[in-house]
């Protein structure tokens, strides 16, 4: 697990990067920024954190968030709806505290365009909102059409994704919990890059655990275009211990020097078909409930497709994305390289080694908030450092993580910690159980840091 010393070091590094160690300096900034208006498009983790920390760094700033939904539905932890560990309502997060405690203004509307010269944002509700600086936190959109036979209407009615939580999450939960005894659940994992790297594999694990109790002859099949994934060794070790999963031989060879990997004679209800074995998804047949991969066509009772992703639609609308489908930024400040006085944070940004995660969006937002405050005061932004931690579950009481610190090296954002990224393979049962408790505590404290 994280050692206290390591946690302290990370916090100190990040605090220095954000300038949090000189909070007393903040009031002196007010005289230069009284009239400054920062508009934030997108009220998810990145946008909410940016709004809150702008006001913490300088309460005199005017901050407006434009967000189409009056309630945020958090994606992190949303797979726990599928195994009845959480309800859909538990995912809802409101904006009341950001309004009342920090004086942040919210406009619930859809952005339709902007004038980067006049610095005015236009909305579907015919509003024109002027700004000095614009932060865009667009999130992601799912590329449903990447697979033959798949589309958003199919996802809404028959073969849900649920990677952006909402009605599809509820549909998938209903399908899984009502699946016939001995049925087959196929999860189609996405290609890189995608939101929440350990997430698809956590989702499969949580459902395997649920099926053990409620549908013990069920099968769970992950079909994957990739040959590896973040937290793969620690996650699959959990599968090995909890679900009689036999690891691929190359993983056994790699891991056996550090930990005993059991070889199970009986089959497992969980299997992973990776890219080199033909796991890439080609086609979805929603009527026949079949999924075609490079290796085979699988008949399933429930199919969960997590398709490729690109920056959210508002990034396209505002001309912030390039040919990759994501948004190029200046690494030090996350200023857009395509539009002036605009900053792009979160999953939509091209952030090199940083994963697309809520934690990344949160730490990027803090760095951008500090950079804007310093620029408005006529000072250079401090050298940035970023952090990311992703907690995941191989089972309800089996927790694991990946934790990293990043800085700019040769013009790119690079990871600077080598060892200690993951839960050790030889972690004790107590450490593993504590990891699961950390995950649940993190859900609460992280949400509070962003929205309260």
Tell me what you see in this structure.
With 452 residues, this protein is α/β, with parallel strands linked by helices. It has helices at 4-18, 30-33, 45-57, 96-102, 152-157, 167-177, 199-214, 232-243, 249-255, 313-317, 358-376, 429-451, and strands at 37-41, 62-67, 72-73, 92-93, 105-108, 111-115, 120-123, 128-130, 133-136, 140-142, 184-188, 219-223, 270-273, 281-285, 290-293, 297-299, 302-305, 309-311, 329-330, 335-336, 342-344, 385-395, 398-409, 412-415. It has a 5-stranded parallel sheet, covered by helices on one side. A 4-stranded parallel sheet has the order 13-12-11-17, covered by helices on one side. Strand 6 (111-115) and strand 7 form a beta hairpin. The chain is globular. The chain starts with a helix and ends with a helix. Mean pLDDT is 93; it is low at 1-33.
């Amino acid at each position: 697990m994280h050692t206290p010393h390591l946690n302290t070091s990370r916090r100190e590094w990040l605090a220095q990067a954000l300038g949090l160690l000189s909070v007393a300096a903040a009031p002196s900034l007010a005289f230069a920024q009284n009239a400054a208006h920062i508009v934030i498009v997108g009220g998810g983790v990145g946008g909410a954190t940016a709004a809150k920390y702008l006001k913490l760094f300088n309460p005199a700033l005017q901050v407006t968030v434009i967000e189409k939904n009056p309630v945020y539905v958090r994606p992190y932890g949303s797979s726990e709806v599928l195994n009845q560990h959480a309800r859909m309502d538990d995912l809802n997060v409101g904006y009341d505290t950001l309004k009342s405690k920090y004086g942040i203004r919210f406009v619930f509307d859809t952005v339709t365009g902007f004038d980067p010269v006049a610095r005015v944002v236009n909305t579907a509700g015919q509003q024109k909102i002027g700004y000095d600086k614009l932060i865009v936190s667009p999130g992601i959109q799912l590329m449903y059409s990447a697979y033959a036979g798949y589309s958003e209407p199919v996802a809404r009615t028959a073969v849900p994704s649920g990677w952006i939580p909402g009605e599809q999450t509820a549909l998938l939960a209903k399908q899984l919990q009502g699946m016939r005894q001995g049925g087959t659940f196929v999860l189609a994992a996405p290609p890189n890059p995608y939101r929440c790297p350990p997430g698809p594999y956590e989702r499969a694990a949580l459902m395997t655990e649920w099926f053990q109790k409620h549908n013990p002859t069920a099968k769970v099949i992950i079909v994957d275009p990739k040959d590896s994934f973040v937290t793969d060794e620690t996650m699959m070790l959990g599968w090995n211990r909890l679900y009689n999963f036999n690891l691929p031989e190359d993983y056994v060879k790699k891991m056996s020097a550090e930990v005993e990997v059991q070889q199970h004679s009986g089959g497992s209800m969980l299997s992973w078909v990776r890219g080199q074995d033909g796991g890439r998804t080609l086609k979805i047949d929603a009527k026949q409930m079949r999924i075609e991969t490079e290796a085979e066509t699988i008949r399933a009772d429930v199919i969960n497709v997590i398709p490729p992703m690109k920056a959210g639609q508002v990034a396209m609308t505002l001309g912030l994305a390039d040919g990759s489908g994501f948004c190029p930024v200046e690494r030090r400040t996350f200023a857009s390289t395509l539009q002036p006085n605009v900053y792009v944070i979160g999953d939509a940004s091209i952030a090199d080694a940083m994963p697309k995660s809520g934690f990344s969006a949160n730490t990027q937002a803090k760095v951008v908030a500090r950079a804007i405050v310093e620029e408005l005061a006529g000072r250079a932004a401090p050298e940035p450092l970023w952090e990311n931690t992703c907690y995941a579950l191989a089972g309800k009481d089996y927790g694991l993580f990946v934790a990293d610190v990043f800085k700019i090296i040769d013009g790119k954002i690079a990871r600077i910690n080598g060892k200690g990224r993951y839960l050790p393979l030889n972690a004790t049962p107590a450490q593993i159980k504590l990891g699961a408790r950390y995950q649940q505590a993190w859900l609460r404290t992280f949400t509070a840091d962003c929205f309260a």
